[in-house]
Amino acid sequence: MELKNILVLGDSHAMVFKSIYFKLFSTFFLNSFKFKVIWVGGATISGIENPNSKTQSCLIFKKALQENLYCKYCLVNIGEVDTGFVLWYKKEKENQNIDNLLNHTVEKMKKFLIEINNYGYKPIVVSTPLPTIKDNCQWGEVSNLRKEIKATQKERTLLTLRFNQIIQDFCLVKGYYNINLDSISLNKNGLVKRIFRHYNKSNHHYNPIVYSLLSGLKLRSLLGQKNNIIESHLK
């Protein structure tokens, strides 16, 4: 059986691909694939091109792309910090237009994906996770750091949905793979479903069990291994 390697690049949300839950799932349902996960906490699309960024994600990701050319695919999971905080901070503190900020971020993401493709990888984009931090939330380190912005959870969600849709359309045009989890992640009120919220209420990441299962099923289907039985129960 051919072993197909997948390089994963992203912010802290990409940690799910190193979790025990995803490893357990992949052992049984993605056993022909091997994952190399490189994640940088706080990494942003805005800083992907900046070698002097605080997180150094530009240098870390570039090094990973150069050193893992044996991988066939490169899965990208990044953007939550941008659409959930950075763009809103620039809008409110620097009086910048949110649409212009979004467009600028989108163009950086497109350029990053093209660079990945030029290295010889097949890009796979996982949609940016929807905001889980509720309005006026005072618990958790990330919540406290982001409480200085006024954007509501609904506003942050709508911006994330716009970003994910634009990137999905771009992937379709370029022939890149895209895993968009938005439709299955939204509740009737247009916010993230409770089942996706982390069991630790101070943690802004998705529930790692649900996220591992859903992203694993989508990835398995995308790469030609169909199984939609469990996925149907999450809708």
Describe it:
This protein is an alpha/beta fold. The chain has a single domain (4-232), classed as Rossmann fold (3-Layer(aba) Sandwich). It is 46% helix and 11% strand. It has nine helices and five strands, in the order βαβαβααβααβααα. It has helices at 20-29, 57-67, 80-94, 98-118, 141-146, 153-174, 182-185, 208-222, 229-232, and strands spanning 4-10, 33-39, 73-77, 122-126, 177-179. It has a five-stranded parallel beta sheet, with helices on both faces. Helix 1 (20-29) links the parallel strand 1 (4-10) and strand 2 (33-39). Helix 1 packs parallel to helix 8 (208-222) and helix 4 packs parallel to helix 6 (153-174). The longest helix has 22 residues, at 153-174. The model is unreliable at 226-235 (pLDDT under 50).
What key attributes describe this structure?
9 helices; Rossmann fold; alpha/beta
Summarize the structure.
With 235 residues, the protein is an alpha/beta fold. The protein has helices at residues 20-29, 57-67, 80-94, 98-118, 141-146, 153-174, 182-185, 208-222, 229-232; strands at residues 4-10, 33-39, 73-77, 122-126, 177-179. It has a five-stranded parallel β-sheet with strand order 2-1-3-4-5, sandwiched between helices.
